[in-house]
Design goal:
This protein is α/β, with parallel strands linked by helices. Helix 1 crosses helix 2, helix 1 packs across helix 3 and helix 1 crosses helix 4.
Length: 290
């Protein structure tokens, strides 16, 4: 089998113009160099050099083989570089998921941009999925990193959840809502308000948290005629279908015509990062940035 060493020696002889010059350039004995070339010619079953009294000349086979040998060495070097960069977390594709209630804004977006600026060989493929779907995709190795909002209903084995930050929850109402203009409201005063988001029986996240907060205040949120568990809640609130409890990062995206009101109770929501245990250095380094 042809070795990388033989290819390297063959190209060095062709470039140096002779065995003697190549042996000096490569810091090996000329006899060892000659033996490697003979083995290469034996493997190819053809002569690559015409041995002359002055200096060897490439045969027609050698002339044809030289550009291919260069290409093989260049390809091997490129592959080796790629492998090293991937192994060091400097290159590769990261599949990132995020809940609709975890918008890629503010600090999250800043961190992502800073990481990619420092790692030009890395690309990120972003998909929007529910928290539970992200955990399933991570478990089945179709996703590398997830950004989700706690709580989750089903923890997957081998998946690590790391809280990133906690933010205040506010009440969102339409500009013509009776509570509009109020500086602060208690959760118990919302018992008769229709909510544009109620929990899904198989999903956690923001809607589940909202229900938990309401139940702690003594009631279960009454469903509005139109429901959404995504950022479209803001449009439903704006249209007057009902109210919503929203964390600050989503509330900050509120369109004109939506007012945000502070809650008297200490209500907070936590965003977490999810990834598999024992991940490759590329994923580990990416997660460490958050």
């Amino acid at each position: 089998m042809i070795s990388t060493r033989q290819l390297h020696y063959f190209v060095a002889i062709a470039d140096s113009g002779g065995f003697s010059a190549a042996s000096e350039r490569l810091f090996i004995a000329q006899s060892a160099l000659s033996r490697q070339i003979k083995d290469l010619e034996s493997e190819l079953d053809t002569l690559l050099f015409e041995r002359t009294a002055r200096q060897p000349r490439l045969t027609a086979a050698g002339e044809a083989f030289l550009p291919r040998a260069r290409a093989m060495l260049a390809g091997l070097e490129k592959a080796s570089t790629a492998a090293r960069e991937i192994g060091r977390g400097q290159r590769g594709l990261i599949r990132l998921g995020h809940s609709s209630t975890v918008p890629l804004t503010g600090g999250l977006l800043h961190t992502l941009k800073a990481y990619l600026a420092q790692h030009p060989g890395v690309s990120v493929d972003i998909a929007q999925q529910s928290s539970e779907a992200q955990l399933q995709e991570l478990h089945e190795q179709r996703l590398d990193v997830g950004l989700l909002r706690l709580p989750v209903l089903r923890q997957r084995e081998g998946i690590v959840l790391r809280p990133l930050f906690t933010e205040a929850v506010k009440l969102a109402v339409a500009a013509d809502h009776p509570l509009a203009g109020t500086k602060r409201v208690s959760l118990k005063d919302l018992a008769q308000e229709p909510f544009v988001s109620i929990p899904h029986p198989q999903r956690g996240g923001l809607s589940y948290l909202s229900a938990q907060l309401c139940m702690a205040a003594g009631f279960f949120p009454k469903a509005a005629q139109v429901l959404s568990r995504k950022t479209t809640q803001l449009q439903l609130v704006q249209a007057g279908f009902g109210v919503a409890l929203l964390p600050l990062s989503i509330a900050g995206l509120a369109p004109e015509g939506v007012q945000l009101i502070d809650l008297e109770e200490a209500c907070n929501s936590t965003v977490a990062l999810a990834c598999r245990e024992g991940e490759a250095s590329l994923i580990t380094e990416f997660c460490a940035q958050f």
